[in-house]
Amino acid sequence: MDNQDIPFLTTVELSELIRTREVSPVEATSAYLDRIEALNFKFNSYLTVCRTEAMAAAEEAEQAIARGDYLGPMHGIPVAVKDQIWTKGIRTTVGSRLMADFIPDEDATAIANLKRAGAVLLGKTNLTEFALGGSQRYGLNRNPWNLDRFTGGSSGGSGSATSAFLCSTSLGEDTGGSIRRPAAWCGIVGLRPSWGRVSRYGVAPGSWSMDQVGPISRTVEDAAITLGAIAGHDPRDPYSWDTPVPNYRHALGGDLSGVRVGAIRELIESEIVDPEVRNGIRAAAAVLEELGATVEDVSLPLTVHGGTWPPR
């Protein structure tokens, strides 16, 4: 395979080629670093590129796999990480000039888990200052679909890097939509995990009761294996769940029998909703029904866990 083609593989496809030794972690990492060097100026996705560290990690992954010590689907996969998440020995600016020289002396738990899974850190991605509002102190992040458009913030750098094939998969952080919005605006997949599923230790805080690290990926299956690598209990985060991490990838079997989905009529049929969005929602509902789910039209207010939504 031509190295220039490697970045266009899904994480799952690349993982299989690495497992079977048809592509090496060094080849994959080098291909992404070359693409970053050639194109990052367009998107301003990365604030810090870790070429030396990434190549060293890729060589270590390659040697481990050659010995037969394959760690799983993230082994040797080049990833990008929002610059809100601590990385040992690598600056973590949190998007602010005030933090321009901050170099953590330890990894966030999510990063430690990624490394334990064998992933390769390519670099740290752009974000709004302190992951708040819309200001970007290190230059605007550009949307790969249209360079005149924004990426949605605050995890926009991870969104644009993933969408522009400048990483295989990435991590963002979501307090009020900061994974989901960049993923939607950049045409990819973002998942905010349930609170407590991923440790927040080593993540610069926005709101302690809402912050959550999660994947920004190009496919649902890529997001599933990325989440599987970072999830798990951490005694340094007292709010993380002390429960086993399921195999999210195996859960993507497609059988939704018994699942009930509520489609809120007032939010779908509203005149402020673009017809294209409304049609997309209805098309998604039809697919869910084909897979066995029950989709019900419901009206506000809803009864949720004994209360009403929206709250009054």
Task: Provide the fold topology.
Blueprint: H1 11-19, H2 25-43, E1 46-49, H3 51-66, E2 78-82, H4 109-116, E3 120-125, H5 156-163, E4 169-174, H6 180-185, E5 189-190, E6 212-217, H7 220-230, E7 260-264, H8 265-268, H9 275-290, E8 294-298, E9 302-304, E10 307-309
Parallel strand pairs: 2-3, 2-4, 7-8
Antiparallel strand pairs: 1-3, 4-6, 5-6, 9-10
Helix pairs in contact: 2-3
- Report the principal-axis shape: globular
What is the name of the CATH class of the largest domain? Alpha Beta
Helix share bin: 25-40%
The chain-level structural class is alpha/beta
Q: What is the CATH superfamily classification of the largest domain?
A: Amidase signature (AS) domain
Rg, Å, rounded: 20 Å
Please state how the strands of the largest beta sheet are arranged side by side: 1-3-2-4-6-5
Summarize the main sheet: 6 strands, mixed
CATH architecture of the largest domain: Alpha-Beta Complex
Distance between the termini: 59 Å
What ranges have pLDDT less than 50 throughout 5 or more consecutive residues? none
| Mean pLDDT value | 95
GO molecular function: catalytic activity
Protein name: Glutamyl-tRNA(Gln) amidotransferase subunit A
Domain Amidase: 27-302
Family: Belongs to the amidase family.
How do you describe this structure in short?
By secondary structure, this protein is an alpha/beta fold. It contains 9 helices and 10 strands.
